[in-house]
Design brief:
The protein is mainly alpha-helical. The chain has 2 domains: about 100 residues, no CATH class; about 80 residues, no CATH class. Helices cover about 65% and strands about 0% of the residues. The chain contains 9 helices and no strands. Helix 1 packs antiparallel against helix 2, helix 2 packs antiparallel against helix 3 and helix 7 packs across helix 9. The longest helix has 21 residues. The radius of gyration is 23 Å and the shape is flat.
């Protein structure tokens, strides 16, 4: 949703100064739905107020329909982009609004982007991950540390537990192997942990 909000803001910025813009209304509706979900969670409710949610979905959908209609001519590259955005929001509305029904789904993908950022940064700094084995090792360790962080375990403690052959494995994981550290090493293609 965060990316959609950024794209909607770009459409709003490109619109004429004081005219109504479909993208602004769609962005306001998305933000309002996010606030409704946050409020329901904060107050311990099981669901969002159906009438308030329906009103925001109606505002969102009518704005996006207006956007698709206004940009249907597709004059120029910018209007083609705006039309593609409006069509995508219409066609994938259920995906964009899933966070209103399933609260396990976050309204943005910040966590996913944060997990990928370290790998992309390593590629940018070193130019690449030199070997497939090295890439697998890096990803296995990074994945382990990311999961540990999501379960409120510090990176240092997670690494200490791993080197002591007692890695932290979340309870939702599959049945625990006899030697969990060996399973993690095997997944990464590592014969043994080597620390320099």
């Amino acid at each position: 949703m965060l990316r959609a909000l950024r794209e909607l803001q770009a459409v709003t910025d490109a619109a004429a100064g004081d005219q109504w813009c479909w993208a602004a209304q769609a962005a306001e509706a998305l933000t309002a739905m996010q606030a409704l979900v946050a409020g329901a969670i904060r107050h311990g409710r099981d669901a969002v107020d159906p009438a308030a949610l329906a009103a925001q979905i109606h505002l969102f959908r009518s704005a996006v329909l207006a956007g698709a209609s206004q940009t249907a001519a597709r004059f120029g590259a910018l209007m083609k982009k705006h039309h593609a955005l409006a069509r995508r929001l219409l066609d994938r509305q259920d995906d964009y609004l899933r966070f209103t029904r399933d609260w396990q789904v976050p309204p943005d993908n910040n966590g996913c982007e944060r997990d990928i950022r370290t790998t992309k940064l390593k590629q940018k700094v070193s130019g690449c991950l030199r070997t497939l084995t090295g890439a697998r090792q890096f990803c296995a360790i990074r994945s382990y540390l990311s999961t540990a962080g999501k379960h409120d375990l510090s990176f240092f403690n997670a690494l200490v537990m791993l080197t002591e052959n007692r890695p932290r494995i979340p309870s939702a994981a599959c049945s625990e192997p006899a030697d969990p550290a060996a399973a993690l090493r095997a997944k990464a293609g590592i014969a043994a942990w080597h620390w320099c």
